[in-house]
Amino acid sequence: MNIQSKLPTTADEFLRWNEGREGKREFVRGRVVEMMINVTRNHWRIATRLTHQLVLQLGLEAYDIGATDFGVRTRDGVRYPDVLVEPTAGDGKALATSAPLLVAEILSPASVAEDFGTKASDYLALASLRHYLVLAQDEPRLWLWSRADDGAWTEPDMIEGRGETVSLAGLGITLQLSELYAGIEG
């Protein structure tokens, strides 16, 4: 006999239900959405290099910085960004944060519409968020949304070229595209 567990209907239920399950999924507007679990080498390289640059510049005393498997609570569910930064939090057993400062997604052919559409909308609604980054995986190009001092979001800036830098004023750091995209042709 095959016994199916009841699908979650809230973010809290989802986090408990999803814990320890194989595969990757998000909880979006009341639905469990299956996600891609295999990424390209370029995707993995960029996520690793972005995390490395963030750790080097921000340190780990005041910030928790990581990739992929820690959730972000949104107004409509739970997302799992490729990279996130949040102030160091107290609860080591938490399964998600609701206060990220930076969220980054790395594009794949299957995620373009989502990363620029509903994910962007979900992330930009977070009061704590200062920057949302979307990075191409095959060429040195990214899009940056930044929250202004008045709380309004800037239109996304597209920054491209290996010699360019990205100022994350809300965190007081600058990223080097030459380091993010080292060894990636394009």
From TrEMBL:
Keywords recorded for this protein, A-Z: Endonuclease, Hydrolase, Nuclease
The keyword Hydrolase is assigned to this record: yes
UniProt xrefs under Pfam families: Uma2 (PF05685)
UniProt keyword Nuclease present: yes
Molecular function GO terms recorded: endonuclease activity
Superkingdom of source: Bacteria
Every Putative restriction endonuclease domain range: 12-176
Record-linked PANTHER family: GLR1098 PROTEIN (PTHR36558), RESTRICTION ENDONUCLEASE DOMAIN-CONTAINING PROTEIN-RELATED (PTHR36558:SF1)
Record-given protein name: Uma2 family endonuclease
Source species of the chain: Kumtagia ephedrae
Taxon lineage: Bacteria, Pseudomonadati, Pseudomonadota, Alphaproteobacteria, Hyphomicrobiales
